[in-house]
Amino acid sequence: VHQRPVSSLQHTLARPVRFSGVGLHKGAPAVMTVIPAPADSGIVFVRTDENPFAARIPAHVDLVTTTQLGTNLTNEAGVSIATVEHLMAALLALGIDNARVEIDGPEVPILDGSSDVFVQEFLSAGSVSQGAPRRVIEVLETVEVTDGSKTVRLEPAAAFEVDVTIAFDSAAIGTQRVVLAPTAAVFADEMGAARTFGFLHQVEAMHAAGLALGGSMDNAIVVDGDTVLNADGLRFADEFARHKALDAVGDLALAGAAIRGRYVGVQGGHAMNVALVKALFARPQAWRWSLEHAPQQLLAAAGI
Ligand SMILES: [Zn+2]
């Protein structure tokens, strides 16, 4: 069931998949439909509640506007879509290259605070090959972004890997490190279900300021001091680091293609991940377009 089509060809969903739920920021309900799309179209959000001429928001790092509480995109017309990273991570890990994401509001539904619902529904729908070669971004030189003791970097590697370390002054979290290669199976079983998290005092302060109005223990792990408040506890002992790894996969997906390289993050976050992708693109010698599992005829078809 978890077998991603190990393919050098682009894929899209076999049928549309519908999700509904509240957004994290405003808590407003939205309906989102992820629809099959043509080869080479990538992932494109379409705000169906906006003027059709202004509604299209391609999922690309150049359109990232804010990264507080999640990664948000804004197009040239000023139309935004918020909290795209958990959806983007699921699409990337499951090998869905092309999709049109129609949504009738400004935020992707937060659902359970992880990618799990997206993964289950996409696996259930299945995907279809589209005949066109799938290009990947091959990292050739290490690129790094630092901010004090925080660091994120991309290194050359034979496959996509994520290596995430976090450290919090709470016994519920402490220091955690996960190293995973997010294939479809690994993502579905070991990363996609890891939920976002926050501290109770932050959640209370945000609610008082009118932020994170959709946030609750239904869609986040809430930590108070050294204690996890959720009645059902954790899904993984190191669920916090696994969620940071999930976030990194989703942010890196905004490169517009899968990355062949190792991501290393120490106390990183959305803003640094986005800066890292931009830093990679800003150094032409640090990367090149390549093909996944490329047989010769596909190399020729792609002009490589
Ligand atoms: Zn997240």
Give a written overview of the molecule:
With 304 residues, this protein is an alpha+beta fold. The chain is 22% helix and 31% strand. The chain contains 7 helices and 20 strands. The strands form 6 sheets. The protein has a 5-stranded mixed β-sheet with strand order 2-3-8-4-5, with helices on one face. Strands 11-12-19-13-14 form a 5-stranded mixed β-sheet, with helices on one face. A 3-stranded mixed β-sheet has the order 18-10-20, with no helix packed on it. Helix 1 (85-93) runs parallel beside helix 2, helix 1 (85-93) packs across helix 5 (239-252) and helix 5 (239-252) runs parallel beside helix 6 (270-281). The model is unreliable at 1-5 (pLDDT under 50). Bound molecules: zinc ion. Zinc ion (ZN) binds at residues 85-86, 196, 243, 247.
Summed up, what is this model?
This protein has seven helices and 20 strands. By secondary structure, it is α+β, with helices and mostly antiparallel strands.
- Main sheet summary: 5 strands, mixed
Q: Report Rg.
A: 18 Å
What is the global morphology? globular
Tally of helical runs: 7
Strand order, sheet with most strands = 2-3-8-4-5
Low-confidence segments, given as residue ranges, are 1-5
Structural class: alpha+beta
Strand content: 25-35%
Estimate percent helicity: 10-25%
Number of strands: 20
What ligands are attached or bound here?
A: zinc ion
SSE string: EEEEEEEHEHEEEEEEHEHEEHEEHEH
- Give the termini separation: 33 Å
Q: Average pLDDT value? A: 93
